[in-house]
Amino acid sequence: xxxxxxxxxxxxxxxxxxxxxxxxxxxxxxxxxxxxxxxxxxxxxxxxxxxxxxxxxxxxxxxxxxxxxxxxxxxxxxxxxxxxxxxxxxxxxxxxxxxxxxxxxxxxxxxxxxxxxxxxxxxxxxxxxxxxxxxxxxxxxxxxxxxxxxxxxxxxxxxxxxxxxxxxxxxxxxxxxxxxxxxxxxxxxxxxxxxxxxxxxxxxxxxxxxxxxxxxxxxxxxxxxxxxxxxxxxxxxxxxxxxxxxxxxxxxxxxxxxxxxxxxxxxxxxxxxxxxxxxxxxxxxx
Length: 286
Prior knowledge:
By secondary structure, this protein is α+β, with helices and mostly antiparallel strands. The protein is built from 6 helices and 15 strands. The chain has 2 domains: 2-143 and 248-284, no CATH class; 149-246, no CATH class. Helices cover 25% and strands 41% of the residues. The strands form 3 sheets. The chain has a 7-stranded mixed sheet with strand order 1-13-14-8-5-4-2. Strands 3-6-7-15 form a 4-stranded antiparallel sheet. A 4-stranded antiparallel sheet has the order 9-10-11-12. β4 (92-102) and β5 (105-114) form a beta hairpin. α1 packs across α3.
């Protein structure tokens, strides 16, 4: 049971990364519910049963994660006792991942951990599992230039470029042939190669930008156009091209709320910190 319960947390996390509700996250923690006695918890630790059960659960979760996500993972689980763990009640869970690929989204590093000392996921048998209390998590992610450029090759992002091309071609103005990013001196540079109808010459558009958080999501800020095409107004399309945000523009996930707290560029890497709350009574089917 515990493997399926913990895997549910990770799956809801991944789904929320792809389709979140941007909202204030209430990370308050509820008091611990009914647990085994302190004596039972102590005996479980002293006899080593707790440590063995935790290790088994950690290894099972890593194997299950790797079936759906490419990357290297380390899991640290802390439980109250073996009986509580089997019942889906545990103290904390931490998942560290590197070189991750999930549905054409690339992330060099992600660290996820629960924020409360009491977490409870109930087994419903064939009906799946239920999150019994709001489950607050912290997320720390590191994204590189290479990650972004790989992600920008995804069908979802290419669809954004295709939609812009439909607009440009209908007006007989331009066609975007390629787009990529570079991180130089902790600045993000966005570069597009255009082709103009009836003109046998390629044009390049380049802009530099900082990153900031607005209403819990990542946006371009202090953007400067370094090279532009005549009659092309980038102001209306700049944030629609944001590769850090494009994959989040999907139908709302009402099972969870996410709020990006901070984004910076350090050592040529994009650092993102966020809170995620998987909502109580969220049911995951098997």
